[in-house]
Design a protein that fits this description.
Shape: elongated
Strand order of the largest sheet: 1-2-11-10-7-12
Radius of gyration: 23 Å
Largest sheet: 6 strands, antiparallel, barrel
Mean pLDDT: 94
Order of helices and strands: EEEEHEEHEEHEEEE
Helix content: under 10%
Strand content: 35-45%
Number of strands: 12
Structural class: mainly beta
Length: 192
C-alpha cells in the first residue's frame, strides 16, 4: 500500500537511549477509481489550486471543493471511498520517497565534498576543483567528471522503521531521518 505524506520535521524520543525520529503527516485521500493492476486514482487536498480540469474531475467523481489534487497510488484491493489508513498500525517497515533540498548551482567542494587546497595565503588554490583533464590523450574532459553544477532537488528513497502511528491526528513517527525540507510532500510505501 502507498500513502501520500507531508514531512512535519524531526524530533527525538524520551528515554534511554533517545532515538532521533521524523514526524510525517499522512494525507487523507479519497479513492476515485480503481484499475485492474492494483493501482487507484486518489484525490487529496493541497493548496488552493483550482481550474476547469480540476472542476471537471470533481464533478465526475462527486468530490468536495477541497479535493483539488490527483495522484495514482498502489493500493492493492480497495473500494471507492476514503483511503483506509488502518494498515499503518500493524506495519513495521516503510519505504519513503521525497525530493531532497534544492541547493541550486553549487561548487565542487559543496556538491562532491572535495577537500580543496590550503587555506593559508599564497597558494591561490582554495575552493577550486583542480585539474580536470589529462595530457595529449584524450585531449578532452572525460564524461561523468565531478564538477560544479545543479545540486539537490532530486528524488531519493530511504527505508525506515515505524516507531508509532497516531491514528487520531494521522501522524506517523519514523526512526531516523528522511530527505527533504519541513513541509515537503512525498510518498510512503509499506514494505513489511
Amino acid at each position: 500500500m502507498e500513502f501520500l505524506v507531508e514531512k512535519i520535521g524531526m524530533s527525538r524520543t524520551i528515554g534511554k537511549p533517545s532515538i532521533p525520529v521524523t514526524l510525517l503527516k499522512v494525507k487523507s485521500a479519497k479513492i476515485c477509481e480503481v484499475s485492474e493492476n492494483g493501482k487507484a486514482l486518489v484525490a487529496y487536498h493541497q493548496g488552493k489550486q483550482f481550474n476547469k480540469s480540476i472542476e471537471g474531475q470533481q464533478k465526475k467523481y462527486q468530490l468536495d471543493k477541497e479535493y483539488n489534487r490527483f495522484a495514482m497510488l498502489q493500493i492493492g484491493n480497495a473500494e471507492v471511498g476514503d483511503l483506509d489508513l488502518s494498515s499503518l498500525e500493524s506495519a513495521k517497515k516503510v519505504k519513503v520517497s521525497f525530493k531532497t533540498k534544492g541547493r541550486g548551482f553549487s561548487g565542487a567542494m559543496k556538491r562532491w565534498n572535495f577537500q580543496g587546497g590550503p587555506g593559508a595565503h599564497g597558494s591561490r588554490f582554495h575552493r577550486a576543483p583542480g585539474s580536470i583533464g589529462n595530457r595529449e590523450w584524450p585531449g578532452r574532459v572525460q564524461p561523468g567528471k565531478k564538477m560544479a553544477g545543479h545540486y539537490g532537488d532530486e528524488k531519493v528513497t530511504v527505508h525506515n522503521e515505524i516507531i508509532s502511528f497516531d491514528k487520531e491526528h494521522n501522524v506517523l513517527v519514523l526512526k531516523g531521518s528522511v530527505p527533504g525540507f519541513n513541509g515537503a510532500f512525498g510518498r510512503l510505501k509499506i514494505v513489511g
